[in-house]
Structures
1.
Amino acid sequence: MAPTGCTLDDRSLGEQLDRYRQLGKTALSIDELELGLVIAFSAEVDIDLLHETVAIERRCCSFFALGYDASERRLSIAIDDPARGDALRVLLSALRDSAPAPPL
């Protein structure tokens, strides 16, 4: 079920979360901030998939502030309302579902 304010239907939301899971496979780090996430990707990140994911997110969830620094391969996702934390946690969960384990 999509978070309040998201315009995706259940099928489209599932597809979007699958895109985040795929991106999570190439995440070097996922930093949780109080009102956001910062994801650094390896050189193996699928740039087309990343751009598609960000474009869809911008259309469906206008409450996210999204930024991508191509030179650092770093995606930032922020909210300005703590009540939107549930939507952020959904993305974090999807990213972590496939993220490689941190080195010991």
Note: The mean pLDDT is 91.
2.
Amino acid sequence: MKQILLRAMLALVAAAAATYAGDAIVLHFRMAGNPPGTGAAYGTVTYFYSADLKNHKFEIFSGQPQQETCVRAIFPHHGYPPCWYSRRRTIRTVE
């Protein structure tokens, strides 16, 4: 039983590592020939700031929306979050 669990855990780690490596390779080819932060590998997401209020609600500031650079990949790379994650978090809470 221990042997089966060990092999399953090893296979899961190997699959995760292969997925991350494949994602990094695809991103590398998308970035080829483009300056950092531009090109087909990067996107921008507009987001707003909000603040928590005492009555468990929040207030969205009506100032200028902020821009965030993100990578078009499954995992975060080069210090940028993936675009699919940033598009779902368009309101950021200020503490």
Note: The first helix runs from residue 2 to 31.
3.
Amino acid sequence: MELTADEGPNPNEVTIQNIAYSGSGCPAGSVAQSLSPDAKAFTLLFDSYIVEAGPGSSHHSRKNCRIAVSMRFPAGWSFTVFSADFRGYARLDPGARGELRTNYFFDGHGPALKSKMAGPFDDDYQVRDTLIGDVHAWSPCKRLRPLTLDTVMSAQASGKQKALLTIDSVDGEIAHTYRIRWRKCQEGR
């Protein structure tokens, strides 16, 4: 039985033990994190996730960031991410494109969601991944495994077109907010 969004373990007993990250979009020292007081969301702040394509590009056209979030919480609970917000800036000439793909998993398998953008576009953007139905990857009940978020952002342009995408805010950091849903473990899970 899945619990409603208002149910879950005592928030005081939920902590992020560690967040490990690697990839060209999140070099060492470029990610910060926080856990919400209600234990239903955590936020990752990035300051180096930029892709660019076209003449004079000073960044790579494709970057990735694999994030492994190790959480500690009371026995008898399992969690999943049910939505994620990505915010940033994109400048895409007519015909240029950008894409953000995220794969969510605990043991190597889980849903992958893509968001595509097309030029002309020159503005801030927000993308919300919403995992619905049975596509959720739930944490194992009998052992703690990190939640892995494998993100890839890319820019495509041809000829004289230019494409630039960032995952950042005005102050140079972006918030990726992940909403967490909890459920009680059942025998056999």
Note: The first strand starts at residue 15 and ends at 22.
